[in-house]
């Protein structure tokens, strides 16, 4: 009911010309209201057997081992440790969509992980061979895409839950916004230090990277509306710059980079009629 009331408020404000500011406000703040009780989120879910993520639990830390293959068919392995207190503290933070984006970019744990990712073990070629900028980017994208996709209903029992990047790393799974935030956080830190944005089409979320920051091989990659950012999918195998053919509602970095007011009004109306539309469904992987 809170969700429907929220959407009705957005529709009303759009009708009087204030829709974008309300849309931003609700993206930033609303999901604390539907997040699970903190006691239910301070421990990570069980990692399934036979997957690409394994987790060792010690008295004070979670130690994850990740294995994945990138689009260039290079196979990688990396380990990362996170204090259990850091996980539980992160899990008790409630963020809206924009807060989750901003937190991922400034997280010290994501900064540490980006450094670990840069030192990942190459399992298919000579490890001494220099890694190109393109290979570094594809390695990061491949890592995030290798994590399990799960809906918030299935993993948390609520319609919407915004994971912190720390939760996503330890849980080894997330939905479209969780995985997009993690990718954005990684690409915002060394060795990349890209200018990044969150890109919101209806019912989905993408990472955006400023086109001027990408390796030269992506020079002719199509840009998003506004002609500055390039889309990167975090849950599908689409090439850099390719994404589902939907209108882009909003591109947000430190402020609004692009907004489509008419598309926001139309999309919000669709969600009001069917609130499940705001939850990315599993067939986005197709």
Automatic annotation (TrEMBL):
Domain of life: Archaea
Phylogenetic lineage: Archaea, Methanobacteriati, Methanobacteriota, Stenosarchaea group, Halobacteria
Annotated protein name in UniProt: Transglutaminase-like superfamily protein
């Amino acid at each position: 009911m809170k969700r429907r009331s929220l959407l009705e408020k957005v529709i009303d404000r759009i009708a009087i010309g204030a829709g974008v500011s309300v849309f931003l406000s609700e993206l930033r703040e609303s999901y604390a209201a539907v997040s699970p009780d903190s006691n239910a989120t301070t421990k990570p879910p069980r990692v399934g057997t036979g997957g690409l993520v394994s987790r060792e639990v010690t008295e004070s830390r979670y130690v994850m081992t990740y294995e994945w293959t990138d689009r260039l068919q290079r196979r990688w392995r990396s380990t990362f440790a996170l204090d259990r207190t850091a996980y539980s503290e992160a899990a008790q933070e409630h963020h809206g969509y924009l807060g989750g984006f901003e937190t991922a970019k400034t997280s010290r744990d994501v900064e540490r992980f980006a450094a670990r990712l840069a030192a990942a073990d190459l399992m298919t070629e000579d490890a001494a061979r220099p890694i190109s900028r393109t290979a570094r980017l594809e390695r990061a994208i491949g890592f995030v895409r290798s994590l399990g996709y799960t809906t918030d209903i299935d993993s948390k029992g609520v319609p919407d839950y915004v994971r912190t990047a720390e939760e996503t790393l330890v849980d080894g799974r997330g939905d479209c916004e969780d995985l997009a935030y993690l990718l954005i956080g990684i690409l915002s830190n060394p060795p990349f230090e890209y200018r990044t944005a969150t890109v919101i089409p209806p019912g989905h979320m993408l990472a955006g990277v400023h086109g001027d920051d990408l390796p030269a091989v992506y020079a002719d990659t199509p840009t998003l509306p506004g002609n500055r950012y390039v889309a990167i999918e975090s849950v599908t195998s689409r090439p850099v710059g390719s994404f589902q053919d939907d209108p882009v509602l909003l591109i947000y970095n430190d402020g609004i980079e692009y907004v489509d007011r008419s598309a926001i009004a139309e999309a919000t109306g669709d969600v009001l009629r069917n609130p499940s539309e705001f939850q990315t469904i599993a067939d986005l992987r197709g």
